[in-house]
Amino acid sequence: MEEFIEDHHTPQLASVSKPAPNFNVDAVLKSGEFGKVTLEDYKGKWLVLFFYPLDFTFVCPTEITGFSKRYAEFTALNADVLGGSTDSVHSHKAWLKDLGELNYPLFSDMTRDMSWDYGVLLPEEGVALRGTFIIDPEGVLRYALYHDLGIGRSVDETLRVLSALQTGELCPMDWSEGKDTLGKA
C-alpha cells in the first residue's frame, strides 16, 4: 500500500464544519441491485455515513444489521444511512445472503479514495477504520468519530448526536431528546 500513498491524490480531508468530501462509488442498493451512490444523492437530507473494515467478520455484521433495524428512526429525523468498506460490491452482495436485506445501501470503496478522503484508511492493511460521519442537508460535515477496528459503534449514540445537531442549540453532556438545551449555538 506504500505505492497507494505515493501515487495517490491529496485527500480532500474531511473536517467538521467544512463541506464533506464528495464521493461517487459503486454500491449494493436497497433493492439488492448494483448501482452508484454519490454525496449529491443525499442533498436535502441528513446523511449518516459509516465505514467498517471488512465483510465476513465478527463485529461488522452487528453494526450493519443494527443500523438497518433502526433505519426508521433515522428516516423519522430526515436522515438516510450509507455504510461500506473497501470490499467489492460482489463481496457485499455475497455477504448479504447471510445478513439479509438492508434498509440502506452498502458502498464499495475498492479504489480506497473515499476512505482516504474521510481519513479512515489504514494504508498498510488496505482497510478502513470504523468511522462514523453525519453530514447535514447542505453537504457540510457536522460530526466525525473514528475508532479502532475491534470495537463496534453505538447506534443509540449516533441517533442522539443526530438529534442534538438538528436542534441547532447547545446540548450539554448526555443530552437526549426531550431534555433542555442550553440555548442557541
Written description of the protein model:
This protein has helices spanning 2-7, 60-69, 71-75, 89-99, 113-117, 155-167; strands at 24-28, 34-38, 46-51, 79-85, 106-108, 121-122, 127-128, 130-135, 141-147. It is α+β, with helices and mostly antiparallel strands. The chain has one domain (2-153): Glutaredoxin. A hairpin with a 4-residue loop joins β6 (121-122) and β7 (127-128). It is globular, with a radius of gyration of 16 Å.
What is the topological layout?
Layout: H1 2-7, E1 24-28, E2 34-38, E3 46-51, H2 60-69, H3 71-75, E4 79-85, H4 89-99, E5 106-108, H5 113-117, E6 121-122, E7 127-128, E8 130-135, E9 141-147, H6 155-167
Parallel strand pairs: 3-4, 4-5
Antiparallel strand pairs: 1-2, 1-5, 3-8, 6-7, 8-9
